[in-house]
Design brief:
The complex is a heterodimer of chains A (about 550) and B (about 180). Chain A has about 550 residues and is of the alpha/beta class. In chain A, about 20% of the residues lie in helices and about 20% in strands. Chain A contains ten helices and 18 strands. In chain A, strands 1, 2, 5, 6, 7, 8 and 18 form a seven-stranded mixed sheet that branches. In chain A, strands 4, 9, 10, 12, 13, 14 and 17 form a seven-stranded antiparallel sheet that branches. The model of chain A has no long low-confidence stretch (mean pLDDT about 95). Chain B is built from eight helices and three strands, in the order H-H-H-H-H-H-H-H-E-E-E. The N terminus of chain B is likely disordered. Chain B folds into two domains: about 30 residues; about 140 residues, no CATH class. Classes of the chains: A alpha/beta (about 550), B mainly alpha (about 180). Chains A and B meet through helix 5, strand 11 and helix 8 of A and helix 7, strand 2 and strand 3 of B. The structure holds flavin-adenine dinucleotide (FAD) and iron/sulfur cluster. The site of iron/sulfur cluster (SF4) has 13 residues of chain A, from loops.
């Protein structure tokens, strides 16, 4: 006999960027909602243990110890991973996956309440119709089953609620939004912007970022500390821990279960619906079943895919809602690497405050003129800065004058990274590896990926574009990163493994993030993405999640689910 | 009397009493006179004293604090004890030993015993060696991320505001926070 407390109106799997939104929307619309989170609870403010710590308060001044390195061989490759943030990253040891030696994939994961919304870089950009139409126009991948006008109101809704600072530029490839006041470009970035505009007709704009430049909805404003990945006690950037989960909580409709690893989704062949989920307690390893009328899968693209592949039934021997066979395929990320240069002059220019964002150069290829070399496009994100004491590492000299000079701001430098669109390829995929089980007895994922021809051409052209831009601005000593250093997944934008489409034979989800095969199962993390565009994707995950929740509640009310 | 107390009192004694009979015996029984009373946990006292001296030459006290005020050498000793990986540790340590040996071969005295001018000359000569450059990087990191080093710049962990482009004069220090 099942306990009454195991029945809910809705079940949300995962409490990160998308799960937080599903929880908030479903709870606010009156559904008794169970949120299942595989990791520990993280409470706003209380669970940000390092947020006020100075570097010297760490044993090794934030540098990662030998033990940490062994525990996090992949996570440690991320720019913001150190002793001040490691507790928000999932241990690679505890959560293995396998890859092909010649087709490696990197996964960055945060297995705790809030997921990767605690450690993201907060860059928030809309996709445009150029993106939604691209698959249809150039024939790579299936057509998105919707267009910009369908999602635009939901971008509005999300931006207004979370607070995004930025500047409208009136661009076709990067739709305007509802922004709080933008942060300011610094002296060199302003020069860069001017030179780009005049000489190349390219836009440099301040990063659109989920930070509160003014107080908003009882949070913020930002104090310009730029230690956001430790958690923000001012609630001045968006995370589900500080925004959406508390909003769900106050409705009284949310039951939040940490340490609850969803193993699989229970499918009832007779009614052709998902009736609930099987959950392993992360600590006791006991299994419990929970039941709900509608299930939202928000565990991050590859984790959701793993759960779906692991949900086998006679009707779905290859994973729930996988009659098409495309589940796990068409894995995408963004591709790119780094560029830097030295900047002469601007000796009396500096900045005040640690600005938690940089500049953004929206895509400028294949916008109004087709590129002869590749389809789709790429953008750049970066910042200009005055060099600090660490420039002394590469200088000759020692002694009192040497030291005193290093205490003062050095010459300016500029650096930026490229973010290019990766096409959806069937060959980039994840499947269950039944040979390797994790400590909870779940088969791990085997993931295989590589860039295709279009990306290989594009990634080379990124260097040309960067050099052209730095030269146009008069910057010197241009350094180009190694394009071969990029590994699929490194940009932490895993997506596409349960794609949306018009045809149930070639896609998993319809335009409402609803499984073609299982109408009460919704998948709203990055796995729904039909193409990757080149913008950071999380704003889209939030907007699609809110839209899907609205649709699901409507369908439920009409007795259709 | 333990070694640490002996060193402290011997230093005072040298100043206030001059060389009294018995003092040299005391110093001798406790080993060579040291520049600092810190007892290294990983490094030998000779290695440690060399590092202490090197760090102070690289980042001496001026009107702002230097390596010794920031505890750079003891911190490096701790890094040897628990931070460096084996290969890194070995590389640095053999570099240090070679440095000490070379200096002694050339000057007939250990590095810590030659005068400052000779020390500076010696450092000038080895500036482009692998040992000196990696050691210097270590000293810079240990100093500029210490509380003393950080606070001798414009340490603003919670600026509360942001201005993108301000005008500064040549006295302006690096803006640093907790990132
Ligand atoms: C360093 C870094 C910087 C980034 N910067 C940006 C940026 O600037 N802009 C941008 O748009 N994106 C950025 N991203 C990407 C962004 O973080 C992700 O796109 C986003 O968090 C994905 O949301 P999600 O809900 O799919 O997954 P997550 O936020 O990862 O949440 C998934 C949740 O599901 C839980 N879960 C997983 N498996 C299970 C299971 N079996 N049972 C129960 N719960 C489970 C996890 O513990 C986690 O809490 C960045 C990512 C990283 C790592
Ligand atoms: S920079 Fe702003 S958002 Fe980031 S931690 Fe500081 S106050 Fe919070």
């Amino acid at each position: 006999m099942k306990l009454q407390t195991q029945y809910f109106d809705a079940i949300v799997i995962g409490s990160g960027m998308s799960g937080g939104w599903a929880a908030k929307e479903l709870c606010e619309k009156g559904l008794k909602t169970l949120v299942l989170e595989r990791g520990r609870q993280v409470e706003h403010i209380k669970d940000y243990p390092t947020t006020n710590k100075a570097p010297w308060e760490y044993e090794f001044r934030k540098r990662i110890s030998k033990q940490t390195e062994e525990e996090y061989p992949i996570q440690k490759l991320k720019y913001c991973f150190d002793e001040s943030t490691k507790h928000f990253f999932a241990s690679d040891r505890k959560h293995p996956y396998t890859t092909d030696e010649d087709r490696p994939v990197r996964l960055y994961r945060s297995f705790n309440a809030g997921g990767k919304s605690l450690i993201w870089a907060r860059q928030s950009y809309r996709l445009s119709d150029i993106d939604f139409e691209s698959n249809h126009k150039d024939g790579h991948g299936v057509d998105w089953p919707l267009r910009y006008k369908d999602i635009a109101p939901w971008y509005d809704y999300v931006e207004k609620y979370i607070g995004v600072s930025g500047k409208n530029e009136g661009l076709m490839q990067l739709p305007d939004g509802h922004f709080l006041p933008p942060m300011e470009l610094n002296c060199v970035e302003k020069h860069f912007k001017g030179a780009m505009n005049e000489k190349l007709g390219r836009i440099v704009t301040i990063g659109r970022t989920a930070h509160l430049t003014v107080a908003h909805n009882g949070r913020g404003p930002c104090q310009y500390r730029n230690v956001c990945e430790t958690g923000c006690p001012y609630g001045a950037y968006f995370s589900s821990v500080s925004v959406t989960l508390p909003a769900a909580q106050v409705t009284g409709n949310m039951t939040f279960k940490p340490h609850a690893i969803v193993h699989s989704i229970i499918y009832d062949e007779k009614v052709r619906k998902a009736t609930g989920v099987r959950v392993i307690d992360a600590q006791t390893k006991e299994t419990t079943e929970y039941f709900g009328k509608v299930v939202f899968l928000c565990a991050s693209a590859l984790s959701s895919t793993r759960i779906m592949l692991n949900s086998k039934s006679p009707g779905f021997p290859n994973g729930i809602a996988n009659s098409s066979g495309v589940l796990g395929h068409y894995l995408m990320d963004h591709c790119g690497y780094g560029f830097s240069a030295e900047v002469e002059g601007f000796k009396d220019g500096y900045y005040n405050g640690h600005r938690p964002t940089g500049f953004y150069v929206p895509r400028f290829q294949n916008v109004d003129q087709p590129s002869p070399d590749f389809v789709r496009g790429f953008g750049f994100q970066g910042r200009a800065y005055r060099q600090n004491w660490s420039r002394g590492n590469n200088q000759q000299g020692f002694g009192g004058e040497f030291k005193d000079a290093l205490m003062k701001p050095g010459p300016w430098g500029i650096s930026m990274g490229s973010f290019g669109e990766v096409l959806p390829y069937y060959e980039n995929f994840a499947q269950l590896n039944e040979e390797v089980k994790d400590e909870w007895g779940m088969p791990v994922l085997h993931i295989s990926g590589a860039l295709g021809e279009n990306e290989k051409v594009m990634i080379k052209k990124m260097a040309e574009a960067a050099v052209e831009m730095f030269e146009a601005a008069g910057f010197k000593n241009i350094q180009i990163g190694d394009p071969d250093s990029y590994v699929l997944g490194h940009k932490s934008h895993e997506m596409g493994t349960a794609r949306m489409g018009r045809d149930p034979k070639t896609s998993v989800l319809n335009k409402w993030n609803q499984c073609h095969d299982v109408p009460n199962l919704f998948v709203t993390d990055g796995s729904f993405m039909t193409s990757s565009a080149c913008q950071n994707p999380s704003l889209s995950y939030m907007a699609f999640t809110a839209r899907a929740a609205d649709y699901a509640v409507g369908q439920l009310a009409q007795g259709r689910l | 009397m333990n070694r640490r107390q002996a060193l402290k009192s011997s230093a005072t004694a040298l100043v206030s009493l001059g060389a009294l009979p018995g003092l040299s015996a005391l110093l001798k029984s406790c080993g060579v006179e040291r520049l600092t009373d810190y007892q290294p946990v990983y490094l030998s006292t000779d290695q440690f004293d060399t590092i202490w001296q090197l760090a102070n030459l690289i980042l001496p006290q001026t009107d702002t604090p230097g390596a010794s005020e920031a505890g750079v050498a003891p911190y490096i000793d701790l890094l040897f004890e628990s931070f460096f990986k084996d290969d890194e540790k070995q590389r640095l340590e053999s570099g240090l030993n070679a440095f000490m040996r070379d200096c002694e071969d050339q000057e007939n005295k250990p590095f810590v015993k030659i005068n400052t001018q000779q020390q500076m000359k010696h450092l000038e000569e080895i500036q482009s060696t692998e040992f000196f450059s990696s050691f210097k990087q270590l000293v810079l990191w240990a100093f500029f991320t210490s509380e003393v080093g950080t606070k001798s710049m414009n340490y603003r962990p919670v600026p509360g505001q942001h201005q993108g482009c301000i005008t500064i004069d040549e006295n302006e220090k690096n803006l640093v926070g907790n990132r």
